[in-house]
Specification:
Length: 185
């Protein structure tokens, strides 16, 4: 997988964190730079660590499923992408007031937005990809988008939130399809 593909995967994975950062920016009344930094740091770190955990798990399974690994990578990325697209269409019936700067809330949000990255890490193991470059790129992209998203949310509200999650889902489906086509040809 080349660096351009890795960057696209990173953007696709970061869309959940970006959308949550926008919502966090809306919830924070007196947003300061250190607030955005804190949110971005949590999201960026979790997005970088979860693929490593998935990759380590995938390495252990690789020998058992090496003949269908590209199909599994395609399936995982497509399912994650479809889930993101579905989530982007759900109606918000009731928004709970939470403090996105609370450490326990940030941990919950960071884990929730990085589960997809865990599955992508498994996919990287199946296609025998080194993990260092992707985790650095994923972590940096997520950090930057989350930092920006906090300010965007504070300034512009929820206008972009659903569209971003939809775009992220489409990117992940595209990457899964690319992996499948590369292995079949």
């Amino acid at each position: 997988m080349n660096i351009v593909t890795i960057v696209f995967v990173a953007f696709g994975l970061a869309m959940d964190a970006f959308a949550v950062s926008i919502a966090s920016g809306v919830a924070i009344k007196n947003l300061r730079i250190n607030h955005a930094f804190r949110i971005a740091l949590f999201f960026g770190l979790f997005q970088a660590v979860m693929p490593v955990i998935g990759w380590l798990a995938g390495i252990g399974l690789k020998d058992f499923i090496c003949g269908v690994d590209h199909w599994i990578a395609f399936g995982l990325l497509s399912m994650i992408g479809c889930k993101m697209i579905y989530e982007s269409t759900k109606l918000e019936t009731e928004r709970k007031k939470i403090n996105p700067l609370n450490v326990s809330v940030l941990l919950m949000l960071s884990i929730a937005t990085s589960i997809d990255a865990l599955a992508v890490g498994v996919s990287f193991a199946f296609i025998q990809m080194a993990i260092i470059t992707p985790i650095i790129v994923i972590g940096i992209v997520t950090f930057l988008l989350s930092y920006l998203g906090t300010f965007v949310g504070n300034k512009f509200g929820h206008f972009f939130e659903r569209k971003i999650e939809l775009a992220g889902g489409l990117i992940l489906i595209g990457m899964g399809t690319k992996i499948l086509i590369e292995h079949l040809t």
